[in-house]
Automatic annotation (TrEMBL):
Broadest EC class assigned to this enzyme: oxidoreductase
UniProt keyword terms in alphabetical order: Oxidoreductase
A GO term, aspect molecular function: 3-oxoacyl-[acyl-carrier-protein] reductase (NADPH) activity
Highest classification ranks of the organism: Bacteria, Pseudomonadati, Pseudomonadota, Alphaproteobacteria, Rhodobacterales
Listed name of the protein: 3-ketoacyl-(Acyl-carrier-protein) reductase
EC numbers, comma separated: 1.1.1.100
Species this chain originates from: Pseudooceanicola batsensis (strain ATCC BAA-863 / DSM 15984 / KCTC 12145 / HTCC2597)
Family: Belongs to the short-chain dehydrogenases/reductases (SDR) family.
Gene3D superfamilies: NAD(P)-binding Rossmann-like Domain
């Protein structure tokens, strides 16, 4: 119960890493607003959390995290339902199909940066004033990618958007430190999430084997791996940690 009575907003909470983080936070005592563009997926995860011993700890909220009004509404939902915002996890992300940089379209560039980088700014814009007013600090966690620190070919815009999210998070860490608001980033390697098959061409099993071969610990990341790291950043165990980029990658970036 290391997050007892904390209120967290987790984006992309309808599946993958976001679902893992939301479930872990709830089991550790947090009340969670599950933000996802897919209302059905967010509702499914909320129902699963609320069906257990953590009843009424989760609220689904459908929103496009690239839209300022939607982000403001998500923050307001947390305030209306739970009275505060202590933690924001910017996890929602999209990619483009693996392809040459010369074949990336303007629409792909705009969409990927809008979802992967812009919400770091938008959630700060709307959540920080409430954190400051309460005077109890706060936590922002950005889920980026190893692509931000060890980019691979064929993913130029995705890698760039995640690198932008990392640098924005580090800058916010400096700007918000005087308010005791900490900002850290998690960079997972490719993981067992729905996004993997959606954007990688070819045979899924072959793709996974190819990726596993590049990871010293011999497997892909799981939602539980990322959730454990997020819990550290969100908890008092990480009270003196800000501006950090943690690679959760089984040694991939060494």
């Amino acid at each position: 119960m290391v997050l007892k009575d904390k209120v967290a907003i987790v984006t992309g909470a309808g599946s993958g890493y976001g679902e893992g983080i939301a479930r872990r936070f709830a089991t550790e005592g947090a009340r969670v607003v599950l933000v996802d563009v897919d209302a059905v997926a967010a509702g499914r995860v909320a129902d699963a959390i609320n069906a257990g011993p953590d009843a009424m700890r989760a609220v689904p909220f459908a929103a496009d995290v690239a839209d300022d009004d939607a982000v403001q509404a998500a923050v307001q939902c947390a305030l209306d339902r739970f009275g505060a915002v202590d933690i924001v996890v910017n996890n929602a992300g999209i990619s483009h199909p693996t392809k040459s940089a010369l074949k990336i379209t303007d629409a792909e560039f705009d969409a990927v940066f809008a979802v992967n980088a812009k919400p770091v700014l938008l959630f700060a814009r709307h959540a920080v004033p409430h954190m400051r007013a309460r005077g109890q600090g706060g936590v922002f966690i950005t889920v980026a990618s190893t692509g931000a620190v060890r980019p691979r070919p064929g993913m130029v815009v995705y890698n760039g958007s995640k690198a932008a999210a990392v640098t924005m998070s580090k800058t916010l860490a400096l700007e918000l430190a005087r308010d005791r608001i900490r900002v850290n980033t998690i960079c997972p390697v490719a993981g067992e999430t729905p996004m993997l098959d959606k954007y990688m061409k070819g045979d899924p099993d072959a793709n996974r084997e190819m990726l596993r071969a590049t990871i010293p610990l011999g497997r892909l990341a799981t939602p539980a791996d990322v959730a454990g790291s997020a819990l550290y950043f969100a908890s008092d165990d990480g009270a003196f940690v800000t501006g950090v980029t943690m690679e959760v990658d089984g040694g991939r970036c060494v």
